[in-house]
Amino acid sequence: MAEEATKVGNVSRSRYEQIVAELRQVVEQQSQGSFTIGDRALEIEPMREQGGQHAAPGQELFTVRETLFRLAEDIGLSFKTVEGARWAASRWPEERRQAGVPFRVHRILGKIENEAERFATIAKPPAGKTRWTVDEANRKVGRQVERPASPQEKITAIHALARDEEVAARVTTDFLKRPTVAEKVPAAEKARVVEEFTRDETVAATAATSLLRRPDIAFKAMSDDTARSQVNHAQVERSRQARDTFDRTSPVAPAVRHLDRTAEFLDLVTACHAFIAAAGRTVPSLRDRTLADDERTIVHQNIAKVRATLDWIETAVDTGKVDVDDELARLLRGE
After folding, report:
1. pTM above the 0.85 mark?
2. Which pLDDT belongs to residue 250?
3. Kind and range of the H or E element at 50?
4. Does residue 52 come out as left (phi exceeding 0), alpha (psi in the -120 to 50 range) or beta?
5. Nearest Cα residue to 110 out of 101, 6, 37
6. 46: Cβ–Cβ under 8 A, 6 or more apart, which residues?
7. What is the C-alpha separation between 273 and 191, in angstroms, rounded?
């Protein structure tokens, strides 16, 4: 067990250290080779200024690109490799190159625009580190790392992988199916996500219907004056549209309209009788009973609504006008 604990992969710790030392020499040779390629490409095509600064990779003049393409083909490398090596060599004069620091790290830190800062940075590894790594170099210049460590780096990596809309949609769906993930999303963010998902009217209608079938949700939704008003308005509008369709298309519509008037008259008389009967049963029960102040306030508020409603009914019966004025509408809403 002790021997296994000291192993790295399939080799002993001491053998691993030998391999690391050997490969560091190989990497150093590769770095020197990459800089040599960059120096020779720089000799053939020196850096040229565009807009007050040296052109970055991908922004070279056409003639320069043609020369670098030819060089790349003649030495058996890709144009991108030669172009990147040339640019890195231009950012790191030979006396500023750090032995033991891979060429790739030099190329990444070459993005630091200020020359003095660039030279000082590569000479001093990050705090707590003995040498520069590719990830540490990427962190320094604000690029995505290969092995995310902090929560923000992991978030950035996920965003990078989910740039494709289809992938992003699938990942979002999978994440939201995890209860522990959904629980950690703040309520305000959940509401915003739901709003985004329900921009499509068909989706919104399906979601609203499903939610309103839950009694607790329906109760809370109808406690909101605006939501309740919109639902009532929708019901009235739906009935009006259905009636309009019937009036336009049904051959029996004229006869039914006469019957409707009779039915509406009976409904109105029945509503009045029901109110009178209910009051007749309830009011006598208040004998010798004194209501509390808040109870009397509520009753008086409702009496005011009843009076206003009766006035509305009387106006409708006498004039045929059923519009609700703003004051009555606010009173009926309890405002």
Report:
1. no
2. 73
3. strand 49-50
4. left
5. 101
6. none
7. 46
